[in-house]
């Protein structure tokens, strides 16, 4: 139940990040390959030869459909650039970031990540190592997103390996305890926060003050974990009146369990002492 609650909150935040990343990358690539003429063109056609076959198939699948006899035909009318982009999966975007021509990195990346610290020296985006360090977290975001989508226990973090060495070296060990998992969650969320901040100040403000973020902060606290481990995440039997809640407010807080509030029907509900 705790894993499900964390997944709902974190998955929602990641969904907004995905949309923001997708839109900014689409607009940046369109602007660059139209020489500033449009923020929405089929820019992937301009870099088709640089795309991996799997990435090409993702686009072709959206542009085609099954015709008579099961033959594959081009959709008519053809999908717009916005429609193509909206139907691509998260994994498409780190693949695109990885193939952006390094000669143009200083022109494209600052428009994708307008608030990224690397923009202080735009030429750094042309450097393979700097670019990788700046965007590597996106692969983990995609990994966590997919685990959430498949209802997996996202608190079981695997080891992080440095595969550039032979044999590979463990950089961060797998999570084997509550403290390990919470630490990994906080590290992941810090990277996600930085990623959101690099895209949009408004989105950062909205998400940092959202109910999902407030609930996530509680769920990752000792009090939040304790509530679920002691099976107090649902209200106990019985109902308190608003007057009883006011009278016993500190006791309800110490019990660390939601309570049902009764009274006139229109005022009934659940009080959650977070």
The value of Rg in angstroms is: 24 Å
Q: What percentage of residues falls in helices of 4 or more residues?
A: 40-55%
Query: Ranges with pLDDT <50 over ≥5 residues?
Result: none
Shape type? globular
State the major sheet.
3 strands, mixed
Number of β-strand runs: 7
Strand order of the largest sheet: 5-6-7
SSE order, one letter for each helix or strand:
HHEEHHHHHEEHHHHEHHEE
Helix/strand-derived class? Answer: mainly alpha
First CA to last CA: what distance?
A: 17 Å
Mean pLDDT: 94
Instruction: Name the beta content range.
Output: 5-15%
Specify the number of helices. 13
What is the count of distinct domains?
2
What does it look like?
There is one protein chain. With 274 residues, this protein is mainly alpha-helical. It has 2 domains: 2-227, no CATH class; 236-271. Helix content is 53%, strand content 8%. It contains 13 helices and 7 strands. The protein has helices at 2-33, 53-63, 81-86, 92-99, 105-112, 128-135, 137-149, 178-199, 201-208, 211-219, 222-229, 242-247, 249-255; strands spanning 64-66, 72-74, 160-162, 169-172, 239-240, 259-261, 269-271. A 3-stranded mixed β-sheet has the order 5-6-7. Strand 1 and strand 2 form a beta hairpin. Helix 1 crosses helix 5, helix 1 (2-33) crosses helix 7 (137-149) and helix 1 (2-33) runs parallel beside helix 8. The longest helix is centred in the first third of the chain and has 32 residues, at 2-33.
């Amino acid at each position: 139940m705790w894993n499900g609650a964390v997944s709902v909150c974190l998955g929602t935040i990641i969904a907004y990040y995905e949309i923001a990343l997708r839109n900014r990358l689409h607009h940046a690539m369109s602007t660059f390959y139209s020489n500033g003429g449009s923020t929405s063109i089929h820019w992937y056609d301009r870099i088709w030869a640089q795309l991996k076959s799997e990435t090409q198939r993702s686009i072709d699948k959206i542009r085609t459909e099954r015709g008579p006899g099961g033959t594959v035909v081009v959709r008519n009318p053809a999908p717009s650039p916005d429609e193509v982009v909206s139907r691509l999966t998260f994994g498409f975007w780190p693949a695109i970031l990885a193939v952006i021509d390094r000669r143009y990195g200083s022109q494209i990346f600052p428009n994708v990540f307008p608030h990224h610290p690397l923009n202080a020296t735009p030429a750094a985006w042309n450097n393979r190592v700097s670019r990788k360090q700046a965007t590597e977290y996106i692969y983990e975001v995609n990994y966590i997103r997919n685990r959430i989508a498949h209802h997996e226990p996202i608190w079981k973090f695997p080891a992080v390996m440095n595969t550039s060495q032979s044999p590979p070296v463990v950089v961060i060990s797998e999570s084997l305890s509550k403290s390990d998992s919470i630490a990994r969650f906080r590290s992941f969320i810090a990277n996600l926060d930085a990623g959101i901040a690099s895209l949009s100040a408004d989105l950062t403000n909205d998400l940092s003050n959202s109910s999902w973020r407030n609930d996530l902060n509680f769920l990752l606290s000792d009090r939040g974990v304790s509530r679920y481990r002691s099976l107090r995440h649902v209200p106990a039997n019985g109902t308190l009146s608003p007057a009883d809640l006011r009278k016993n407010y500190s006791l309800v807080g110490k019990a660390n369990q939601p309570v049902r509030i009764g009274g006139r029907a229109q005022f009934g509900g659940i009080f959650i002492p977070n």
